[in-house]
Amino acid sequence: MKKRNQLMLACFGLALTGSQVHAQEVIKKGKYTLTYQSNDQSFDPKLKEKLVATFFEVYPKLAKEYNPKTLKEVKFFIDTAYKGVAATSNGEIVFSPAYMSKHPGDIDVVTHEGMHIVQNYGRSVGPGWLTEGIADYVRYKFGIDNPGANWTLPALKPEHTYKNSYRITARFFVWMESKVKPGIIKTIDQQLRDHTYTAESWTKLTGKNLDELWAAYVQNPSIS
Description:
This protein has about 220 residues and is of the alpha/beta class. It is built from 8 helices and 8 strands, in the order E-E-E-E-E-H-E-E-E-H-H-H-H-H-H-H. It has helices at about 45-65, 95-100, 110-120, 130-140, 165-180, 185-195, 200-205, 210-220; strands at about 10, 15, 20, 25-30, 30-40, 75-80, 85-90, 90-95. A 6-stranded mixed beta sheet has the order 1-4-5-6-8-7. A two-stranded antiparallel ribbon has the order 2-3. A hairpin with a 2-residue loop joins strand 4 (about 25-30) and strand 5 (about 30-40). Helix 1 (about 45-65) packs parallel to helix 3, helix 3 (about 110-120) packs across helix 4 (about 130-140) and helix 4 (about 130-140) crosses helix 5. It is globular.
């Protein structure tokens, strides 16, 4: 008998250390499972649905593109005690309900944080700016509603460097993919996961080191 790809929900409550979870759902679709937890009774159910839908639309694509061995079970926790935007650790993404309620269009926070799970660099041999730059590059490439969050890659400014991280670094990577070597970010991502990455990786792949690549980018920063 052929099985259809359906969402399966199980709802129940439980307590986590230091906070009472008011709602939990275990949602399964295909080979991926998302456990949704929240200790915010006022969190918008429609926003919750959007975050969950974004996960199931984007995460399988990231897994296929970058790391098919990534975790098949992921957790979301809407945590009133968390005051940032979102953070990822050990397969769990913690969201600030205050931030998400003020920025309900920023659903591709899921894309950025989901990529951190896919990255799974362990004791990374690369710098933090590179990890975050790749995650925002992936958000640019795979995000499903970046315009809805008014999220764009910033125009190059004189004070920028590739070490600025996040969107500034991501734009440099978009340029590199377009003007230097298609597929280079996927290769660097794999090297970081394999722990074969070194600062010389860029030279081996392109014939130029990062400073030389940045200098070329500054001379012609168009990504169109």
